[in-house]
Amino acid sequence: MERSNSWFRWWRKKAREGQGQGGRPRHGEKVVVDGSEIRELVEDREAFGMLVDTKFRQLDADGDGMLSVGDLRPAVADIGAALGLPAEGASPNADHVCSEVVSELTHGTSQGEVSKAEFQEALSDILLGMAAGLKRDPLVILRMDGEDLRDFAAGSRYEPTAAAVFSQVVDLGSEVASPRQCVLAALQKLSVDHGVPPASDAWVAKHIVEPALQQLLPADQPGQQPASRDDLFQQLKKLLGAVADRLQEQPVIVAHTENHYDGSGVKRLLANKFELDKLLDSVWKNLAAEDKNKASKGCLITALDKMADAASLPYYSAVKEVDAVVEESIKTAGVEEGKAVDEAEFKKSLTEILRAIMLRLNDSPVFVSTDVVVHEPLSGTSSSVN
């Protein structure tokens, strides 16, 4: 294992020297993970060959020269962590591509085992798939050490933001009656934009939020009177200071992504008839025979996923708000479940569905922001936030 770690450190150093980025971010810095290092790794035949040899020997415990398909995921997770990628969940599109490749390999391998050559090919496909997902939806790696939070609490944004979040807390009624509950609920509505790491994360709640809250507001008292607006403002400000102190002692690394789906990507695709026709031809050509004989909602969703990149849409199941738009648009197309369709009908239906998606997103755009706490080391080092 030490040999593998040394190799990863060498690769990471090489990547940093070549691109001028990577590694653990310092205060005020944002590291953008866009998959470029992964692509560079796969394209470097010598380096990638070294990686395949090392990982294959580690995973082939019985030395029979074969691995189970299930061994691929831990191998990818190990490599991803060494390259500075957060765990699954931080990039839905990258996760989707990775799952699709593993799924296809599983169905295509009758014995559920792969040789070293198949392992190398599969690993290349998965890593390039992850890189494609990250190129489309880059991760911004933030190091939260309390400085941004102090700036927010002391700045002009604090009072209007506090007023907004407390107005939402009041709407919760009796469920948030005590000052302690009120202040905690307000904290949970703040985000990385304010310098607060995700309070819903179990590690952040246990090591950052709860100790800070216990320091200021130990526990609710029976018959405790509701606090005034000014008291709540001051208590929240004190809590933010206590959280900043904890973050200074134990900085938290957060992977941040945000996407705005307004239908503009679909509009560009529909306006480019050459690209649209080429894409529709490809989708129809690669459609399973049973799907051509019996059209279904699942078949249409699969086809839309193959067009997602060109239409700047998320893969199905990655963003529930967009999933709802897709499902309503499929209903609008009026494709009869289980009815046999020919090529012309299928392409027409897909085009109508895309147009319906475009109109719905244009009327009601979907904005998605995701923050995931990184609990494994970045840059292949031994340090960690947990």
UniProtKB/TrEMBL annotation:
Residue ranges of every copy of the EF-hand domain listed in the record: 56-82
Coiled-coil regions listed: none
Gene Ontology molecular function terms on file: calcium ion binding
Name assigned to this protein: Calcium-binding EF-hand family protein
Keyword terms of this UniProt record: Calcium
UniProt xrefs under PANTHER family: CALCIUM-BINDING EF-HAND FAMILY PROTEIN, CALCIUM-BINDING EF-HAND FAMILY PROTEIN-RELATED
